[in-house]
Amino acid sequence: MRVLYCPSLFEERKSAYRFSYSMDRAFCEKGHECQRMDYRGTGEAAGSFAEVSLETIYEDIARSVQKEPEIFVCVRFGAALVSGFVSTRNVRTGTLVMIEPVLDGKAFLNHMFRKQRLKDAISGSPPANDEGFTNIEGYKTNNAFLEQVRNFDFSKATEGLARIERICFVLISKQAQEDEKLCCLQESLRDRSVMVDCLNLDIPPFWERIPIANHTQAARSIVDLCCD
Amino acid sequence: MRITLRLHVQLWTCAVIRKIDTLPSGDRALSFCLDVPEGEHKMIGALFVHAADGNRTGPHRLFVELSELLLQLGLPTMRFDFSGCGDSGGKPSRDNIDQDCDDVRSAAGHFLRLTGIQRVLLIGISRGAEVCFRCTVRGWVPAGGMILLSPPVGSAKASVRLFADSLRQYARKALDPRCVRKIISGRVNLRLITLNLSRSLGLMFRYKKEPVPEKAEPQHDRALALLIFGSSDPIAADSLRHYRTVCDARGLDYEDLVIPNANHSFFHYKWKEQIGRKTVMWLHETGLLDDTQ
Q1: Could you please report the per-residue DSSP string of A208-228?
Q2: ipTM for this prediction
Q3: Residue A44's CATH number
Q4: Fewest C-beta atoms under 10 Å: which of A132, A202, B82, B278?
Q5: pLDDT tens-digit profile of A128-144?
Q6: Minimum distance, in Å, between the CA of residue B254 and any CA atom of chain A
């Protein structure tokens, strides 16, 4: 089976990278081909993050999806991005695995801004930002993109998700496990005949800080779930 | 040996040949990303050395962006993951800095073989910078130069400053309403906090100072160093003093830059841009680019 791994944005991509390696190996052990992509201006991809928009991210995913993958694995805001991509491009895929999905763009940005404010308060920051750009965790981010993320309409994305055969939710934090919006989404997808699975994992938030522990076992349990 | 298949969006500002593969270091397979400008390239190449627990993209992609700048100047670049980090096999070195030095030695050797370059420009951040320095003074790498970003120093004074700064950060976090809720609900990761604080204090033991030789080893007689610190980094002042002393003692030519307000990992894009500009200027001024085509 072909698997496409779509990461989150900003430093969450870096922190979760070792986990993506464990996922890659776990899929490999099962004989599946896992491709981990980077959007332009992120990770190891060329380009400038300052020029990124939702449209360029969808283009980048489309470019990586030369042949439609059977499994999409997405982490944190990557889940929102893949949902948006699936909806806008009418993509059909067998299974979508959402790891600790962030479906509320506004909440995601608030979280990022709070982290940034804490850092700025401790060390200070350079003189006034460039017009039209904001610093988020060292990334020069254009304000138009931030506005797109803030206004990300997940209700539209839900329509697209209903075309997917199976969606696996992997929830790690207590906050996600108790999130009412996520519960409603799962119910709404079930009502539309989507097969919905949920796996709660008790591991540290690997997207916030590079994990000290080895997450091979957690990765294997996710692979077992979605390859069942 | 397994090659991980990676997809990248190719939007280079200059033509680049990219190779992602693994290289051997002892019994470990280290993952690396090699970028070589198409056509003629300089005979000096940049090897990036990441910090503890990081990976080859560097903090907030600093290494990838610096690498793009250097490729435009005609330098091949190699970024690799230390053992147990990123896509590399094995276990992380933790406090064993010698394992990291071995990894740099192996990566540099592979870099020379793959590209035919004669000298290496080592670029390291934090612990990676300390590893670069050790490899150069030991003569393990034919280093033409080093760019050391926030190299740490193992002194009691620096440890205490780092510890106090960590406490200050936790105190500030504790004032955030979300953190208050986290504390009340008992969801605070005390183990992680203890680990961070103990690591701050452990700084004085982690980077034991190397004995200063009477004169520079012949392998690094041309090595030049650019030291870059952030003024808000609690260990910057002690570290800068230490590195000035050891560079003088070893007869290494060096230049230093302290970026106002910047922290240990330079988390503002303007600071990254400043590092990029300084790097290019320094490479031109020192002539490292001149005789190596």
Answers
A1: TS--SS--HHHHHHHHHHHT-
A2: 0.92
A3: 3.40.50.1820
A4: A202
A5: 667 899 999 999 999 99
A6: 26
